[in-house]
C-alpha cells in the first residue's frame, strides 16, 4: 500500500530544505521527561555499576547528558557484550528494557562477560516521542564515518574509546503503528521518495545481519522471547515489514550498508529486537520483559557454545 495523502509539510516531489525542517521541528513538543524516566534510574545503578557520561546533546535550550553503564572490573579475558537502547527515542521498551536488564540480570552475566549498556542514545527523541533527532535525521541510518547525527557519532566515538572488541551486540527496538501513520509518510515527504506502507507485524520479531546472520543465535532469542510474549507471524507473502522471512520470527538486514546501530561493531553475534507495543495482547511491562528475554536468550546461547 502506497502513502496517498500528502504530508502536512513540504511540496510533493520536492525534498525538504531548511524551511521545511524548521516547520517540522516547530511542531515537536516535550511529552515526557528523560531526567525522571531514564536518568533517575541510571543514577540508581551507580552503587553496583560504573556509570560514565560519554557526551551531551544540545538542542536549542535543552541539553541531554548521554550515559554508558558498565559492569565493574573489566577483564580482558572475558568477551564484551554491548546493549543499546533508544536509538529511536520513541521506542520506549528499548530504553526501559535496557535499564531493566541492568537492574535484574547484568550482575549475573558479568561473571562470564564484560557488560556495556547505552540505555538511551536519543534522549531528545525519547522526550518528544520521535524517530528522528531535532535535525530531522534518523540516528539509526547514521552509523558511518562523519555521521550527521550527534547521537550516532558520539556513541561510535565512545565504543571506540573502550579499546575492546565487542563480541555480541543487542540493539533494542520497537515497530509501532506510528511507523505507518507518521514516520514513513514523513520520510517520504522529507526525501521526496515513494514509501510503501507495510503490514505492522503483530508480535515480536528479530533482525539479523545479512553478513553474519548466526541463525542458531537468532533462533535461541526467539525461543526465549516466546516464553513471555507472542512472536509475529509472517504476512501472506512470507515477509515481515516487506522483507522475506529467514526463519520463524527473524529477517535479515544489511546493517552496515544501511548505517544501522546493529552494524556499529564487527561483533560475531548481533541482533536488532523488534517489539510491537500496540498489540492488544501486550502491555508496557510485557514489552520490557520481552526485551530482557531477548538479551538473556542470546547470552545463554553464547554461554552454551
Structure, described:
This protein has 9 helices and 10 strands. The protein has one domain: Aminopeptidase (3-Layer(aba) Sandwich), CATH 3.40.630. The chain is globular. The protein has about 300 residues and is of the alpha/beta class. A hairpin with a 2-residue loop joins strand 1 and strand 2. The model has no long low-confidence stretch (mean pLDDT about 95). Helix 3 crosses helix 9 (about 285-305) and helix 8 packs across helix 9 (about 285-305). The longest helix is centred in the C-terminal third of the chain and has 21 residues, at about 285-305. The strands form 2 sheets. It has an 8-stranded mixed sheet with strand order 1-2-4-3-5-10-6-9, sandwiched between helices. The chain has a two-stranded antiparallel ribbon with strand order 7-8. It has helices spanning about 20-25, 35-45, 90-105, 105-110, 125-130, 150-160, 180-190, 215-225, 285-305; strands at about 50-60, 60-70, 80-85, 115-120, 165-175, 205-210, 240, 245, 250-255, 270-275. This is M14 family metallocarboxypeptidase.
Strand order of the largest sheet: 1-2-4-3-5-10-6-9
Distance from first to last alpha carbon = 43 Å
Radius of gyration: 19 Å
The CATH superfamily appears as Zn peptidases
- Strand element count: 10
* CATH top level label: Alpha Beta
Helix content: 25-40%
Percent of sequence in beta strands: 15-25%
Kindly state the mean pLDDT as a whole number? Answer: 96
- The CATH architecture: 3-Layer(aba) Sandwich
Major sheet summary line: 8 strands, mixed
Amino acid at each position: 500500500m502506497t502513502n496517498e495523502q500528502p504530508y502536512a509539510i513540504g511540496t510533493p516531489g520536492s525534498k525538504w530544505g531548511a524551511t521545511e525542517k524548521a516547520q517540522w521541528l516547530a511542531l515537536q513538543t516535550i511529552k515526557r521527561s528523560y531526567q525522571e524516566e531514564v536518568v533517575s534510574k541510571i543514577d540508581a545503578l551507580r552503587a553496583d555499576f560504573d556509570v560514565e557520561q560519554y557526551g551531551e546533546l544540545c538542542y536549542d535550550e535543552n541539553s541531554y547528558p548521554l550515559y554508558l553503564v558498565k559492569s565493574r572490573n573489566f577483564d580482558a579475558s572475558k568477551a564484551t557484550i554491548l546493549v543499546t537502547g533508544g536509538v529511536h527515542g520513541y521506542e520506549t521498551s528499548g530504553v526501559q528494557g535496557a535499564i531493566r536488564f541492568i537492574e535484574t540480570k547484568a550482575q549475573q552475566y558479568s561473571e562470564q562477560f564484560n557488560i556495556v549498556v547505552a540505555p538511551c542514545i536519543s534522549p531528545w527523541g525519547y522526550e518528544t516521542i520521535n524517530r528522528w533527532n531535532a535535525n530531522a535525521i534518523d540516528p539509526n541510518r547514521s552509523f558511518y564515518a562523519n555521521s550527521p547525527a550527534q547521537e550516532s557519532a558520539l556513541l561510535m566515538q565512545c565504543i571506540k574509546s573502550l579499546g575492546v572488541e565487542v563480541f555480541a551486540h543487542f540493539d533494542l527496538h520497537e515497530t509501532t503503528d506510528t511507523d505507518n501513520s507518521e514516520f514513513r509518510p514523513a520520510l517520504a515527504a522529507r526525501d521526496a521518495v515513494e514509501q510503501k506502507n507495510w503490514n505492522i507485524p503483530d508480535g515480536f520479531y528479530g533482525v539479523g545481519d545479512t553478513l553474519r546472520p548466526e541463525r542458531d543465535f537468532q533462533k535461541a532469542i526467539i525461543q526465549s522471547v516466546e516464553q513471555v510474549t507472542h512472536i509475529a507471524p509472517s504476512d501472506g507473502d512470507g515477509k515481515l515489514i516487506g522483507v522475506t522471512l529467514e526463519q520463524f520470527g527473524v529477517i535479515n538486514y544489511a546493517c552496515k550498508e544501511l548505517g544501522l546501530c546493529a552494524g556499529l561493531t564487527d561483533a560475531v553475534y548481533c541482533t536488532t529486537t523488534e517489539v510491537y507495543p500496540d498489540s492488544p495482547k501486550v502491555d508496557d511491562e510485557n514489552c520490557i520483559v520481552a526485551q530482557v528475554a531477548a538479551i538473556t536468550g542470546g547470552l545463554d546461547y553464547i554461554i552454551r557454545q
